[in-house]
Every structure is written in C-alpha cells, then in structure tokens.
Amino acid sequence: MIKDDPFGQGHLGLLGGMGSEATAHFLRTLAQRSSAVADQDHVPFTLLSCPEIPDRSSAVETGDASVPAMIRARLRQLEQAGCGAVAIPCNTAHYWRHDFTASLQVPLIDMVSVTAEHAARLGARNAVVLGTRSTIRYRLYDAALKDFGIQPIDVSDEVVHSTHSAIALAKSGNLDSSSKHLAYSLAASRALHPDVIILGCTELPMVLPAATKDADLIDSTTCLADACIHWWRSRLELAAERTNLTGLQLSR
Known about the structure:
This protein is of the alpha/beta class. 50% of the residues lie in helices and 12% in strands. 44% of the residues are buried.
C-alpha cells in the first residue's frame, strides 16, 4: 500500500453499531466463515461503529428522513476512506438500501437480497420473516423474496410484538428473556408450516434457544458474512488475473 493511500484502501467498509453486540456477532461470524489459516487470510475491513444512529424501525414508521440521511453520510465516509464495497449488518437499515446504492460509487452488499437468494438456493417456496416491527409490517423482504419466486407468509400481531420484544431485550443485554420471546415467535411461525424462517434481524441469531432445530432457519447475519467473503475473494482473484496478464505482457 502506498503511504498516502486512504486508510481503508480496498477494504470492506462496515457500518456497525446497530446494535453494537450484533455487530460484534457479525464480525465473529465473518472471521469464522472465512476459512482462514493465518491472519492474512481474513477479509480486511474498516469498521465505522455508530450507535448514535437513532432507531431505524421508528424512523421507518414515522418517515424520519434524518436517519437514512445519517446512514448515507456514514456510508460515504467509508467510501471516501477508500473502501471497495460497503455493508451494513442491520436489516432494518436496508429499508433505504436503494437510496444508499444510488448515492455511492462502490457496491453496497445488500443483506436482504443475499438472504433471499440463499432461501432460493435451498428451494424454499415460501418463507416467514422475523425481525423488527417495521421489518415485518413494512414487508422489507417481500420484493426480494418474490424476485426468487418465494411467497412471504404473514405472521400474527402477537408474533410481531414478541419478536420486536426479543430484539429490544437483546439490545439491553437481557438475553435470557430475549431468547424466551424468540422461542415463542419461532413456535408460532412453525405452526404456519413455512419452508424456511428468516432471522431478519442481527440480534436474533445471538439469542436462539439452545434446543432450537435450525434446519429451517436462515440467518441473515451469516448470509451477509458469506456475501462479504465472496466479494473479497472475487476481488483477490481479479487482482491475480490482472497481475498474471501484466506479467505475460512484460515477458513478450
């Protein structure tokens, strides 16, 4: 790296802090799924943690434009730092993802789209999405799922409330109570016989009940981590191809 290059040159840019422990869980997932055998094999990232960003769910419900504006400004800072792509380990923030994409010159790795794509690879025909109140009620995942021919299944208001409570409790550090609320939401969702249940909030995989059968669960945190790893490996492969091509040209 050239000394005067931006400090995030070529890195994955991560906008975290929504919430902070969920961001830590995402980073752990990213590291564990990287198949690294040495430090240098991991995905280099520049993390901008912004827990001061107001509640995304409330902003969706009230139409508060200051929240997406704040997120957009932070994403631009990551871009200006030299990052080659950006990602947000927060599902609800993706309510404004098309606006973010339009304002950036680098790719936004879309958590919602890659999660829906994973559901399609599993052969799902329908899905329940659990997440924040606004993620469920404002159907954050509907368009992406339908693009892959997957029909979203509506859940009851009780499930919406229980899941949102699980998320709020997880954010406050009350993981045991959070897990109990999530267990109720999962049981009620399974009564609807979906092919898959999408954990569409980064707090939810942190509080999965220990005895939970997970064959039908899709973790959006893992899907985003895998997409980030794929982006980085593709970048490395492209760089290697360019190096090889340059070497061939110089040898002629």
